[in-house]
Design brief:
This protein has about 325 residues and is α/β, with parallel strands linked by helices. Helix content is about 45%, strand content about 15%. The chain has 16 helices and 12 strands. Strands 3, 4, 5, 6, 7, 8, 9, 10, 11 and 12 form a 10-stranded mixed beta sheet that branches. Helix 5 (about 65-80) packs across helix 6 (about 95-110), helix 6 crosses helix 7 (about 115-125) and helix 6 crosses helix 9 (about 145-155). It is globular, with a radius of gyration of 21 Å. Residues about 1-5 have low confidence and may be disordered.
């Protein structure tokens, strides 16, 4: 007998055990449900990465590289051979392509590779010489190879130019379903960022955000996929020298409640204890180049894990090899400048 939607929603535990046993015997469950982010220390602490059915929030102060980090995770997943759909409410596809080419060039050519601004200049040039993108990028360190790498995963990474007026929850759900049908597999969903998703019948921001987060969580469960949502901070969390925590996410408390994992990016210089700056002046400049990524919530494992990754924002990326933070961190730095 064919299973109806009701059968899928209401199920005895005996049937659930049988299904789990069949998946384990076939070896089909664990690898498919784990989505490595490509950031080594984070994946180790998340037991491999994100998981299908999980809602992951990424917060941090303005300018801390949330879009850079989310796009890099999307790129890492696409390079693993899996589909990704990235809903971007703040940038168009061309701007995201520039970031990806700069990222790949940086990985290939290191500090000699072109910056985001240099790659953008190549994409926007109008000198009338008739040279192709490949020809122009070949003149840079790693640029030509970078474009080839992007082409390799380009069909798996879909960028949706989203609008705060038109890209509703229904549009998101239809788009995700279409991408899943086209690839024959559920994609990683990235929302950048969640507070911009419009809801017509919600009179207050809290009610709107509550509806968005609840429906995105349902989407992860219905289609068995992970969703990474960039979230904005409230006024208190924006201030320089403050450590953004889960309580500083702007909007309804449903955000933290519904999320399976909450990650927070902070500038290491802003959150390290004062004595690390006073007694070693060399740390002042050094810490500015590192971001602290904290697991603030994790239904499946440890919380309060502080990791650090070097920032390479001129190439729109982070170093993916990080380490646990050794220094003492604080919620508010006492300025020494």
């Amino acid at each position: 007998m064919d299973e109806s939607p009701a059968d899928l929603q209401l199920q005895s535990l005996s049937d659930t055990i049988d299904q789990a046993d069949r998946r384990v015997r076939a070896g089909a469950d664990a690898p498919e449900r784990v989505w490595p982010t490509g950031f080594d220390v984070l994946d180790a602490n998340l037991h491999g990465g994100f998981r299908s059915g999980d809602l992951v929030l990424l917060g941090g102060p303005q300018g801390m590289g949330k879009t850079t980090w989310a796009l890099q995770v999307a790129r890492n997943v696409a390079r693993q051979g899996r589909p990704v759909v990235y809903f971007c409410y703040e940038h168009d596809q061309a701007a995201m392509l520039v970031r990806l080419v700069a990222l790949e060039a940086g990985l290939i050519g290191g500090i000699e590779a072109p910056s985001v601004s240099q790659v953008r200049s190549i994409f926007e040039t109008s000198d009338g010489l008739g040279l192709s993108l490949d020809e122009r990028l070949e003149e840079t360190t790693g640029g030509g190879e970078a474009l080839e790498v992007v082409r390799e995963y380009a069909d798996r990474l879909r960028i949706h130019r989203s609008s705060g007026g038109r890209t509703t929850l229904d549009v998101i759900k239809r788009t995700v379903a279409d991408v899943a049908d086209q690839h024959g597999a559920a994609p990683l969903v990235v929302l950048d960022y969640l507070q911009k998703v419009p809801v017509a019948d919600a009179p207050t921001e809290d009610e709107r955000i509550t509806q968005v987060v609840e429906e995105i969580k349902d989407l992860t469960l219905d289609l068995d996929l992970p969703a990474l949502c960039v979230v904005a901070s409230d006024k208190e969390g924006i201030g320089a020298g403050k450590r953004m925590r889960v309580g500083n996410i702007r909007g309804s408390s449903a955000l933290a409640y519904e999320a399976d994992t909450v990650l927070m990016l902070n500038n290491k210089f802003d959150v390290v204890a004062r004595h690390h700056l006073v007694y070693d002046s060399g740390n002042v400049e050094r810490f500015r180049h590192w971001a602290v990524l904290t697991v603030e919530k994790n239904r499946s494992g440890l919380t309060g894990v502080d990791m650090e990754f070097a920032k390479r924002f001129e190439q729109s990326r982070f170093e993916t090899h990080g380490q646990l933070v050794r220094e003492k961190l604080v919620d508010e730095r006492v300025f020494i400048e």
